[in-house]
Fold each of these.
Amino acid sequence: MQTQCNESRIEFHGLGERVLTADFEGGNIVSDGGVPLIAEVDRMFRVLEQYADCFTDHRDQEAIEHSVLDLVRQRIYGLCLGYEDVLDHDRLRADPLLAACVGKQDLEGQQRRREADRGMPLAGKSTLNRRELAKVGAGPDSPYCKIVADLDGLAKLLVDLFLDAPTEPLEEITLGVVPK
C-alpha cells in the first residue's frame, strides 16, 4: 500500500520576516524536527507566555540578551525534546532551529555582545540554571539569581488553565487551600 501525502511542505508560524517550513527534500536535516510543532502549539495556546509572566526579572534590562520568555521556551522545548538535564543546553544553545522556534532573530548568534557567546544564539546552562535556582524573595541585589517566580501567580495560572481547558462539564470541582 502506497502512502498518499497531500503536502510536501509544511509552513509554520512566521518568525518576523522569516518563514519556517518543513519539507522532505533532504536539505538541512535536523534530528529535533518536532520543535516547530511544539512551538506552534505553544504560540496557539500561549501557555508558556502566561507562565513567563509569573516571574519578576530583576536583571539589568539593558544588559540581557535572553528574555524570561526566551529562557522558558528554550528550557521547556528542550524538555519536550527529551533533554532533561540543563547541561544539554550547552550543546543546544547553538541549534538554529531551536533558536528560530524560541523566537530569536539572529539564528547563528553572530550579533551576541560577548565574543565568547558568538555562534550561540541561545542561553547556556548557567543562565538557565540561575533562573531555576532563584529563591523566593530574591531581588535586584541578589548576586546571580535575579529571576524570581511569583508562586501565587503560578498557582493561579494552573487553576486558570484547568478551568479554561475544553472538557465535558464537571459535576463538582474541589479547590483546597494550602496553609503557608
Amino acid sequence: MSHILVRNVSKTYGTKRVLDGVSFEVKRGEIVIVEGPSGIGKTTLLNIIAGIDHPDEGTVIIDDQDIFEMSEDARARFRLEKMGIIFQQMNLIEDLNVMENIALPLKLAGKRWKERVDELLKYMKIEDLRYEMPSSLSGGEMQRAAIARAIANNPEIILADEPTSNLDDENTKNIGDLFLRINREFGTTIIIATHDPRIDYVASTVISLKRDR
C-alpha cells in the first residue's frame, strides 16, 4: 500500500492555467475521488501523479520518494511496478485480443503471464472473452479488460481517469463495486478522476477541483 503526497502542483498549457497550487494527501489503502467538471485539469493531475507529465511547480511524493527527482527510465520502471493506470479511453490495443492486452504489462515486467492472466480473466468474470478483440466488446467488457490489465502486476496504486463516464447505471455500479473489492482484498490505494457522481459512493475522501471565478 502506498502513501501519496501532492504538493503545490501547478500546470499551465499556453496561456491556460490548468492546475493552480493543488495539494492533498492520499493515505495508504484509501480510495480518493478527484471530482470536477470537464476541462478542470483532472486528467492532467492524474498524469502528473503517474509521472507521465511534469508540473510547472510543485511535486509528487510517493512513499517518501519525490518522483520528479528520478530519471525518466527510473520513473517508467516505478510506474510499471507500482501503478496501474486506467485511461479515459481505456487504450486497449486494437490489434491484440483481451488475453494479450492483459498480458502486456506482465511481459514488459519480464514476468510469467499465462497463469496470472487466467486468474484475472476469472476475477473479472470475462473468461469467455479471452480471444475477443477490443472492437467486439461492450463498454462494460472493455472497462473490465482495462482494469484487469491495470492490476496485472499487483500494483499498490490504481489511477483511473473517468472510468464510468460512458457506462450505463448497471455497469457503473459493477465497476464501482469492483474498485471496492480490489481495495478491500488487496489494500490497493485508488485515485479516481471523475465528474460522474454515480461513483462517489466508493470514496473515503472526495477532493473537488474548482475553477477560479
Amino acid sequence: MHPHPDEKSLLVKARQGDAPALEELYRHYVEAVYRYMFYRTGDTMVAEDLTAEVFASMLTSITRYRDYGVPFGAWLFRIARARLADYWRYAKRREKYQLPLEEELENIQGFASPEAHFQHGALLDALQYLTPAELEVILLRFGSGLSNQEIALVVRSNANAVKSKVFRALKKLRGILERKEEFNQEEGLI
C-alpha cells in the first residue's frame, strides 16, 4: 500500500479536523484495512465492524499522530492489529483463523474457469496451515499491498526480517500446495 500522494498535507489538515482530508485518508486506506480484517476473521460483517472501529480510533487519535519515522499507513495498521487482538481476546467464538466462505470466492473477479477457482480455493485452504505470524505477513504483503518496509513498521521488526518471513511463508505455502496437488492427482480429483 503506497501512501497517498498528498498525504503530508492531508495529515496536517486532518489533525485540524478537516472533514474532506479525513475522508480522503479514509478512502485511500479503507480497502486495505478491510481486506486485512476480512482475511484474518473470514467474516464480512466482523471485518466491516473492525474496519469501522479502526477508523473510529483513527478519528479520535489523529491529533496525536506525528511522523516520527512511522508513516501514517503503518500507524493505521498498528491500530488495526490492536482492534483485531481485542476482537480475538473478547470474541465468544474462539475459532482458529477462518478463511473466506465459498460465497466470497464467487465474488472474486477473474476466476472464470473451474481450474482457476479450484486453485484459488486450494490457496485459501493452504493459508490455514500457516502460523499466525506467517499469515499476518502474507496478508499484509499480498492482501493489503504493504511493502516489506511498511510491514516492518506495523509489526515492529526490520525490513530484512520481514522479507525473510515472507519468503519462508511463501516457500511453506508452495510446499503445502504441491502436496495437496499430488494428493488430488493420486485420488483422481484433478
Amino acid sequence: MEKSHVNLSLARQDFRIVCAESPEYMKALEAAVNERIDGIRRKYPSMSTMRIVLLAMLNMEDDLFKAGLDRAADEGDPQEGEAQSGAKSEEDDF
C-alpha cells in the first residue's frame, strides 16, 4: 500500500502526517477532530488547549466504547489501537 504525506492542523497545531489512507480521508478526520475541539472551546473559552484536547479525546473514546469499536481497550492493549490507525507523525518516521 502506498503511503502519502498530508498536512493537517489539529487544535491549531500543524502536523505533516505519513499515512496509508487517502489525503481526503485524513482531511475528513481532521475536520471531525477539530469540530469536537471547537465545540468544547466555544463552551469553555478560557480553558487551556491541552484540557480541551483531552476532553475531546475522552468524548471520542466514549463514542468508540459505546459503538463497540474500541477492541484495543477491550483487549487491554492500548498500543494496538494506535497501530490500527495507520497514521503517524513524520517526526516518528525513521
